[in-house]
Amino acid sequence: MKVGLNIVGVRPEAIVDYAQAAEELGFESLWSGEHVALPKHDGWWASHPGTAMFGDKFTEEMVGFTPDSPFLEPLVALSHLAAVTSTIRLGVGVYMLALRNPVHAARAIASVDVLSGGRLDLAVGLGWCEQEYTNTGSEWRTRGRRTEEAIACLRVLFEQDTPEHHGEFYDFGPIGFGPKPVQRPRLPIHVGGHSRAAVERAARVADGWYGSTDLTHVDLVREAVEAAGRGDDPFEFSIITMEGPVDEKRAGQFAARGVERVVVTPWPAAHAGSVGIAGLADVEQCAEAAGLGSSS
């Protein structure tokens, strides 16, 4: 089982310490998510997926961040961490691709992969807050179709010698584009999300799925991959847990269902960007619980 570390909770000035500690402790990857332009008003969190899962029991405190939380731009942050690490993989989960022009996004994504020596994983998602789209001049209604077409644009830009694309939302080329990502056979693009549309999107166009610990979705994605005729293609299942340390028994339960990577969050009750150096002890506890660095 690959074990990653979610660093969204870490204060910006401490991320280097966490990245280097995680690499030394044996974590396989670091993961950083994003929010771009959350609104500031009462009820800003009302459309969070937790409200559908838990109903009235879901509270603002359970969101894990506020509109004022210091979300670093994930590709910028991971590029910074690439310079101070050497082996640990660097993941974005999730990246709201529909808020960006895919040509600009591709340039940033490829740059991080090149500068890190081919260590980037990209998990793309739509987000849940309509006002983030409004606040960035992006259309909410077409976000799913635009995301899927944008993923196709990334593939073209990364894999064609002279990229061009002429689609419903994006039109470019032929153009020059370089440097390309250095990973082979290609930079892995995962799709996150739990809706039926997200599951089917992952099955059609992604190299993997990035989601929660509700393992029924793993089964749904696997069925969708088979239905899409991709049952023999490499496809990786990654989950992110907000429950603190994950021990080897729990990791084994995930593995038995086909999960290949679990991303742990050591601070389930902390707001994003609120954890300082003292939280390194929690990272060490997560590593010990997962058996990282042990001979077992």
From TrEMBL:
Transmembrane segments: none annotated. Signal peptide: none annotated. InterPro entries: Lucif-like_OxRdtase_Rv2161c (IPR019921), Luciferase-like_dom (IPR011251), Luciferase-like_sf (IPR036661), SsuD_RutA_monooxygenase (IPR050172). The keyword NAD does not apply. One of its GO terms (molecular function) is alkanesulfonate monooxygenase activity. Keywords: Flavoprotein, FMN, Monooxygenase, Oxidoreductase. GO terms for biological process: alkanesulfonate catabolic process. Residues 11-239 form the Luciferase-like domain. It holds the Pfam family Bac_luciferase. This is Putative F420-dependent oxidoreductase.
